[in-house]
Amino acid sequence: MSDHYQVLGVSRDATGEEIKKAYRKLARKLHPDVNTAPGAADEFKAVTHAYEVLSDPQKRRVYDTTGQENGTDNGFGGGFSGQGFGFQDIFDTFFGGGAPGGGRGPASRTRRGQDALINVRIDLKDAVFGTNKKIDVETAVLCPTCEGSCCQPGTSPRTCDICHGSGQVQRAVRSILGQVMTTAPCGSCQGFGTVIPDPCHECAGEGRVRSRRTLTIKVPAGVATGTRIQLSGRGEAGTAGGPQGDLYVEIRVNADPVFMRDGDDLHATLTVPMTAAALGTVITMETFDGEREINIKAGTQSGEVTTLKGLGVTHLRGYGRGDLLVHVQVETPQKLDSAQEELLRRLAELRGEQFAEGRVSGGNSAGVFAKLRDRLGNH
To answer: What is the distance between the alpha carbons of residues 100 and 89, in angstroms, rounded to a whole number?
Structure first.
């Protein structure tokens, strides 16, 4: 059996730290992933086995006293004894204990920025026709001092002295399968392979800063509450000069004092005097498209609807617009002077209605617009 001290190239009174340093140096030189020369794999196994014995105080004491390993040549590295072996070491070794990226090199500081979401309120008319809206956004932007390099101007990142730019370090883990080499992110450079000795003073080495900026967004015609507009590349700047995320603008449409929306149709109530409804008239109404004339036929009843084609909301997908539906509400006078009252009594006599009886109908006779209002609420 070979001498473990000679295998590692250390004296018999070497400290634990000296043994560890010697092993790391040889492991980096002989690891099968690095050294493919004939015999290198066997040398690596011998070095690993020697380190397994000499790094454990109890095994080293037995080895120094007897020259034997007390049964540790069974291929299991002494089972569960030694320096705090646990099941977590097994999981770290076989299920993700390596460096970022699966142990394939240093991680990149460059990261894509996060997406952002803001709410924007618009008037109903803007939803009908579309509009351009200015918005203020507070978000992360590229650092103007280092321009994403993360370094103070005139300086640059330096290769990590510990992992020599790989972003990873190797460590020996004792498992039920024996001593196993695994990789982990370098604690000195956090897995990046480089360190920044002089971080940018403005962004603290992140490559981005918080800032408020004003954007002009195009709100398309036909949007409704809940519609989201995606602005690619207008979200947060990434770290270390990484690409920007996306900005999502969620629309909230304000309630209008005159018009109510139902899909792409608009609804409005037109209140007319009783006499106008009875005799008929033409009333001018203000719409989003300007003034329009509403023809009130003689004998118009409350709840009747006049449809103005193509004066509703623009279809968000496709062509054309919805309609404007005008619901007529006949207003009954509440205060009459004596002359007006006499005229109405005379009219009632002429129509044989001085003792008129009401007509009882089902419970669904409420005005169409009233039912619509109840259904839509404040939407």
So the answer is: 17
What are 194's two structure tokens? Answer: 């480089």
Where the chain has pLDDT below 70, the residues are 1, 31-34, 70-104, 175-178, 358-359, 361-379
Q: Are 296 and 281 in contact (CB under 8 A)?
A: yes
Domain boundary among 179, 213, 229: 179
Structure-derived torsion over alpha carbons of residues 126, 129, 134, 139, reported in degrees to the nearest 10: 90
Roughly how many angstroms between the first and final C-alpha of the chain, as a whole number? 86
Write the CB contacts of 58 (distance below 8 Å, at least 6 apart in sequence): 81, 82
Query: What does the pLDDT look like over 48-80, one tens digit per residue?
Result: 888 888 888 888 888 887 777 754 443 333 333
Does one domain contain both 143 and 242?
Answer: yes
Q: Is the domain of 150 the same as that of 283? A: no
170, 27 Cβ separation under 8 angstroms: yes
Q: Cα–Cα distance between 251 and 228 in angstroms, integer? A: 6
Same domain, 198 and 130: yes
Q: Report the C-alpha gap between 100 and 117 in whole angstroms.
A: 29
**33 plus 144 within the same structural domain:** no
**Cα angle value 82/99/77 (rounded, 5°):** 20
Residue 95: φ, ψ to 5°: -135, 60
> Beta strand 247-253 with 260-262: parallel, antiparallel or unpaired?
unpaired
Residue 173, domain extent: 4-105+168-179
Q: Is the pTM of this model over 0.85?
A: no
Sequence-distant (6+) residues with CB within 8 A of 142 are: 148, 207, 208, 237, 241
